[in-house]
Amino acid sequence: MKFNWGTGVVIAFILFISFIMYFVISMNTDKSLDHDLVDENYYKQELEFQNDINKEKNAKTLASKVTWKKTTEGIVISFPADFQDKNITGKVFLYRPSNKQLDFETTILLSNHNLLIPDKRLLDGRWNIKIDWSYKDTNYMFKEEIQY
């Protein structure tokens, strides 16, 4: 069989196409490369983004802000002391960017202006915390990336 430049080009194309097909198939079937959106309702949240901006602006105008600290029991979230805790309502969302099965949401139930998120619900590492709360018909939001 005679090997000329035309045969070499055809073989090079076949090898290149085979490599690309192997690469595409292995990327689509490998479960370790499976990445999801942070939230399934991503587009719905995008439409409500201006409301979130307004809530964050309201939170920045407060004299005392929402704070958090890590304790041996878990994370303690402290709300402003000048507000009555029975009038503070809302939810706390904790997102784990590396594993959506660890994400959870809890209702705000305060004890002396503090909310405890137990240690048993949290793993060490990065979390995104989002506190969507209201006090006397004014909505507030606190967002932060934390290391636990």
From TrEMBL:
Keywords: Membrane, Transmembrane, Transmembrane helix. The chain crosses the membrane at residues 6-25. It holds the Pfam family FixH. InterPro entries: FixH. The keyword Membrane applies. This is FixH protein. It comes from Olleya namhaensis. The lineage of its organism: Bacteria, Pseudomonadati, Bacteroidota, Flavobacteriia, Flavobacteriales.
